[in-house]
Write a structure and sequence with these properties.
Helix content is 30%, strand content 19%. It has 577 residues and is of the alpha/beta class. Strands 3-16-11-4-5-6-17-25 form an 8-stranded mixed sheet, sandwiched between helices. A 5-stranded mixed sheet has the order 21-20-24-22-23, with helices on one face. Strands 1-2 form a two-stranded antiparallel sheet. The longest helix is centred in the N-terminal third of the chain and has 44 residues.
């Protein structure tokens, strides 16, 4: 082997010619070294890097980054010297062993340098590429600037029914160029990341849409008026220029939970993501045929793997279902979501190639808020979700009943008994799975709010408002507190601005002793206490909102421990395994 093929004419290994530049933090060739050999891709043939620009067709007018990786550090090669005459002596053997150890260290160091430099260049390339794919919306003061908070995290998944894209016109309403909040899931991630709850919100749920500020293209904020009468939930996005922030505010009004982030996908996203994961398994108890409904969906009973157009047709289909209603379709959508979770965790995460395909498809297809609007932030979020065992992810639909205001109901309203229970349990971060440790931790943390000194009843200052309790409750409670309990510094503040599913007591940190005393007198559970972060000034009162769970003065308000609603787990399938 000549000197050139060995790596250098002077007998110096190529890897030894690379040194760390302390100013840049990167490996560079020594000035007197030969040119560094370059790799066209820097990857194994099966990795998607070399053909990345070709695979990024979902990016519209975005320009793909160059498909070649930076030069890699040449790997260290071992060399064998010819034995010298009389090399059988012990000292020379020790010398050779010492030299061998040195060469092993050099080889290991060179290989490690190759991995570090090659991996960082590869990661940098893909982070840059994926960052360029992501579309973001500035939702103003709603949501969180942090990817993750110290407590629970709530992410709103919005399915936009806009018909833009090849083949999507078959689903009707071709004039719909903005879309609506057609399929919406609230993903509640527990504080300790041991479990999650996924709640579907029906598109035909009649609710109040609040006023919301939306950012305009010139940077200004335009306030879009909410609904004066109950309106379909799906109009919280797209109608009158409402952005995803309006949907976030609407969900906050329904659930009394703070929504941290949103992710919005459209019909095209369903096609590309289902294809990127290699298809999604669905299991049907009975065949589905929609041969005259515009989708040509034809699936047999049992297990099928669907992707692309079939996946979208499956999610959109209502024909052949029990009542051909949106609620029936939601159950199919939940099955699809659970199956995709299983696919990602059991198959995709173990394949770097598939992971990059999914990342490419997802970032091209999704629109997110600025709080998670980068590849790094999405990766952080994905890692947290990946910690949750599938058996501890619960899927359900918001409890609803037929709209009593319609002679022939076509819309639904919140179930006045079960919906408040569901929201209260989510507010208390209570697990719907058998995570006993999680349940105990959530209860203990909230229960701690009731531990500590109590004020005298005469020192308690509170304003009462009626947020959904029986008519006249505020007046009745005021009379009871003043005359029977000695809370003379209480007053009736009328009706609350919005309906409340549960009774809550809002107070400042320096009013904690008053809050504990009032909770004892009223029979309020720990979950009803909502401490603030800023001390109250002077004689500022606490605020007690009597919610739909309040019965009458003197009757304790019980915290719900379960809710009567159909539930499923992400690790479950319809078909026998």
């Amino acid at each position: 082997m000549d000197a050139q093929t060995q790596g250098g004419s002077d007998g110096i290994d190529p890897a030894d010619q690379w040194v760390l530049n302390p100013d840049t933090g990167t490996y560079e060739l020594r000035p007197d070294g030969p040119p560094a050999p370059r790799s066209r891709s820097g990857l194994r043939p099966e990795a998607p890097f070399a053909s990345a620009s070709a695979s990024g067709d979902g990016g519209g007018d975005r320009t793909a980054a160059p498909a070649t990786a930076p030069a890699r550090v040449p790997r260290q090669r071992g060399r064998r010297d010819a034995p010298a005459p009389g090399a059988a002596s012990a000292p020379s053997r020790r010398k050779r062993r010492k030299g061998a150890r040195k060469k092993v260290l050099l080889w290991t160091g060179g290989t490690l340098a190759t991995v570090l430099v090659g991996t960082s260049a590869y990661a940098y390339y893909w982070y840059e590429r994926l960052d360029g794919n992501i579309s973001t919306v500035d939702v103003g003061d709603v949501g969180s600037d942090s990817v993750l908070t110290d407590g629970p995290v709530n992410i709103l998944i919005i399915g936009n029914d806009v018909r833009v894209g090849k083949g999507n016109e078959a689903y009707g309403n071709r004039t719909n160029v903005t879309g609506h909040a057609d399929t919406t899931l609230l993903f509640h991630i527990a504080e300790d990341r041991s479990n999650a709850t996924v709640v579907s919100i029906p598109r035909d749920l009649m609710i109040s849409i609040p006023d919301c500020g939306t950012r305009q293209s010139d940077g200004s904020t335009k306030v879009i008026a909410g609904s004066e009468i109950p309106t379909r939930f799906n109009e919280s996005f797209g109608v009158k220029g409402r952005d995803p922030g309006c949907t976030m505010r609407t969900v906050e009004g329904i659930t009394d939970l703070e929504v941290d982030h949103f992710m919005m996908f459209d019909f095209n996203a369903v096609k590309t993501l289902s294809t990127a994961v290699g298809g999604v398994k669905v299991c049907l108890k009975a065949p589905i045929k929609d041969l005259d409904g515009g989708t040509d969906l034809d699936l047999p009973a049992g297990e099928s793997r669907i992707a692309g157009e079939d996946a979208l047709s499956f999610l959109r289909n209502r024909h052949g279902l029990k009542n051909e209603s949106d609620l029936d379709r939601i159950e199919m959508q939940q099955q699809f979501v659970a199956s995709m979770m299983r696919q990602l965790k059991e198959d995709t995460l173990s394949s770097p190639g598939k992971m990059l395909d999914v990342a490419e498809a997802a970032t091209n297809a999704l629109t997110v808020d600025k709080g998670i609007g980068s590849a790094g932030k999405l990766v952080t979020l994905a890692r947290e979700l990946g910690k949750i065992d599938l058996k501890n992810i619960t899927l359900m639909t918001v409890p609803v009943i037929d709209n009593p205001a319609e002679p022939t109901p076509v819309t639904v309203v919140l179930n006045p008994v079960e919906a408040p229970k569901l929201f209260s349990m989510m507010q208390g971060d209570v697990s719907f799975t058998e995570v006993k440790k999680k349940q105990k931790a959530a209860k203990d943390k909230q229960a701690a709010l009731l531990e500590g000194p109590r004020a005298e009843a005469s020192a308690v200052r509170v304003d009462l408002t009626n947020g959904g309790a029986p008519r006249g409750s505020a007046s009745a409670v005021l009379e009871w507190l003043q005359n029977a309990k000695g809370v003379s510094k209480s007053s009736n503040a009328g009706n609350a601005p919005e309906k409340a599913a549960r009774t809550t007591l809002e107070y400042a940190p320096n009013q904690a002793d008053q809050a504990r005393e009032l909770a004892d007198l009223m029979g309020l559970p720990a979950s009803a206490l909502k401490p603030g972060t800023k001390d109250a000034a002077g004689t500022e009162p606490m605020r007690l909102v009597l919610g739909a769970d309040f019965k009458e003065a003197g009757t304790p308000v019980a915290a719900p421990t379960k809710v009567d609603v159909k539930q499923s787990r992400a690790d479950e399938g319809e078909c026998a395994r």
